[in-house]
Amino acid sequence: MDSLFDPPAEAWQPVSVALRTLHRLMFVIWIGVPTAIACVAVALVLQWWWLVAVLAAAGVAGIVWGWFWAARSQAAWGFAENAEDLWIRRGVAWKRLVAVPYGRVQYVDVTAGPLQRAYGIATVSLHTASSSTSAVIPGVPADDAVRLRDRLTELGKTRGSGI
Amino acid sequence: MTQGQRTHPASAFVRVWLWVAAGLFAFGRDLVESGGDRSLLSALWVGLALVGAAALLGVVFGYLSWRFTRYFIDGREIRIESGILTRRSRRAPYERIQSVDIAEPFAARIFRLCELRIELAGGDDSRLSLQYLRHSDADRLRHLLLQRAYEAGSQAVGAPVAGATTDGGSVEGHAEGGPTSGPALGPHVDLSPPILVVRPLRLVVATLLSAEFLVPTLIMAALLVAGMLFPGFVIVGLLPFLFWVAQVIMSRVVAQWDFTLRRAPTGLHVTRGLLSRISQTVPYDRVQAVVVHQAALWRPLHLQRADVTVAGASRDTDSGGSSATLVPVATPDEVRMVLGELFADVDPAVVPRTRAPRRSWPFAPIGWRFRAAGSDERAFVAERGWVTHRTDVVPHAKTQSVAVTQGPLQRWRGVADLVVHTPDGPVDATGRSLAADDVRALATTQLARARHARETSPSAM
Q1: What is the CATH number of domain B71-190?
Q2: Where are the alpha helices (DSSP H) in chain A?
């Protein structure tokens, strides 16, 4: 069944492991902090200890699930530079594979927020005339990202055709 | 021409109806607020005063804005300056002119005026309009602008080719109904005879049978019946459905009335509209993809509707977004003929398709039989739907990117979706719930064919 998401040539180029760490950090912050606040609030105000236990358990379960999801998501995100197009695969449960011909690339974005910069990774996104293309590669090491962007822009120019 | 030209003086009066409507609204509010305290005569006097004052204001504003509106035509561009307090200058360089069309909004038609609309390539300020001119002036200006645009090298639609301007003599000759005019033609449409005319009866019948009309109508009927059978049942919310039906009628019937398609040098020329007569062009080289709809009730009548995705089209807001409509109602043969005008040698009916497998039925218990996708050397075709059957056609040269998606349930059943991306528009070329084994092959074939089409066809704008 997974021959559907096999790489076009040899193998998928994976994204940086730092993406996994970043996702895990986000899970801890976005689940842990609100859960902690809620637990403290319930403990102080209502003193329903059963509710505190439920909230804490839910928070921990969420973080644990996110821990494993981050690893699988990072492993499942890959891209491959073919002769004529760029293929990007993503997703664990909801899988998606998109192939963007070089000649159709209108422009390439490299963006990195503060946390991404701290980990030395960036997000590369390709844009075509269609807004549903959604060709995004997060977690590319910063230098590789710039090189990839330049390569793609060059290929886009040489193979480019009008609308 | 260094001295600016003015639009027609009657333009001052075209917008007065808006002011009168505002005056009537103020009168209505006043009536409601004062209740029954006033006598009929005094109420009438108040009404007259309000509406009269509003009309006077409207005329004054109209006159002022007409006074301060001028257009300049020089060697490089047409410039329109307007504005009473804040001056606004809009420029249209000739080489950026995409098309020049003439529209007749209802209010202008009463005064026998029309509006000149200039579409520009690129940028957000993509449309200029000159309000309002006499038909003859608008025609003359249109020919002049298209000529200048053609000379400046723009890819203007409908630009006259050498010799066409000598057809039938001057524009005034056309206004008298020259030999090339067909039935119900305005004097300013001077192109070839129509290739398709949608008869009003067919338009009305088809709209009455379409899902967009029947759904709110049936809901309204159900509400009315419930209101009659159960006396305590308060009919709330009948009004939104009334508006819905009115909107459907406006956009599908009134805006598409007398829909006429003609061949123009670089596109298909559309004239339509009952109250406001609109003319538009669908440029050949900017058409990306076409979708053909067939509602369930249209099937016995053999009728279809076709919408088109045009790259960089500015949304025409007059008529509720119907600028994407290629053919509002037509028989399959007529639709095939129009498709042939846009894309050479593309006939969706003969394209070989891969059908969705039986095991995909959980995702569409009835519709799975109607899902298919496939391609030949010319185009990719995807179809789905049983209440409204849709067929999306994407010529290979217009393919942007290709994607395959598969959710966890789909993986369990061994199916996946295939999407061929096109620029934003009504077309959505998705083959849903196809066999996973076929999808990969379809995707790679599509990429190869798209590349071949890109390399062999000359690159367009």
Answers
A1: 2.30.29
A2: 18-27, 33-41, 49-76, 114-119, 142-159
**In this structure, are A63 and A136 located in the same domain?**
no
Q: Residues spanned by CATH 2.30.29 within chain B?
A: 71-190
A-chain CB neighbours of B445 within 8 Å are none
Query: Do A56 and A88 lie in a common domain?
Result: no
Instruction: List, for residues A52-78, the tens digit of each pLDDT value.
Output: 999 999 999 999 999 999 999 999 999
CA dihedral of residues B396, B401, B406, B410 (deg, nearest 10): -20
Tally of domains within chain A: 2
Structure tokens given for B235: 């009919």
Instruction: Answer yes or no: do A90 and A154 share one domain.
Output: yes
Examine residue A91 and state whether it is found in any structural domain, yes or no. yes
How far A161 CA lies from chain B's nearest CA (Å)? Answer: 5
Query: Please, which pLDDT band fits residue B280 given cuts at 50, 70 and 90?
Result: confident
A54 and A33, same domain (yes or no) = yes
Q: What are the pLDDT digits (tens) for B54-112?
A: 889 999 988 998 988 999 988 888 889 988 888 888 888 888 787 788 888 888 888 88
**Which residues on A lie below 8 Å from B401 (Cβ)?**
98-101, 104, 128, 130, 133, 135
Bridge partner residues of B115 (DSSP): B103
Indicate if A102 and A147 belong to the same structural domain. Answer: yes
Q: Are A85 and A145 part of one and the same domain?
A: yes
Both A35 and A90 in a single domain? no
**Interface contact A99-B403, CB threshold 8 A:** yes
Determine, yes or no, domain membership for A84.
Answer: yes
Q: Which of A109-113, B210-214, B455-459 has the lowest mean pLDDT?
A: B455-459
Q: How far is the C-alpha of A80 from the C-alpha of B241, rounded, in Å? A: 51
Phi, psi angle pair for A99, to nearest 5°: -115, 120
Across the A/B interface, how many CB contacts are shorter than 8 Å?
100
Where does B185-331 have alpha helices with state H? Answer: 200-209, 211-229, 238-249
Q: So what's the pLDDT on residue A138?
A: 94
Show residues of chain A in contact with B461, CB under 8 Å.
162-163
Q: Is B421 on the interface with A (CB under 8 A)?
A: yes
Express each pLDDT in B130-189 by its tens digit. 888 998 988 888 888 888 887 777 655 554 433 333 333 333 333 333 333 322 223 334
A163 and B311 within 8 Å at the Cβ level: the answer is yes
State percent of chain B over pLDDT 70. 84
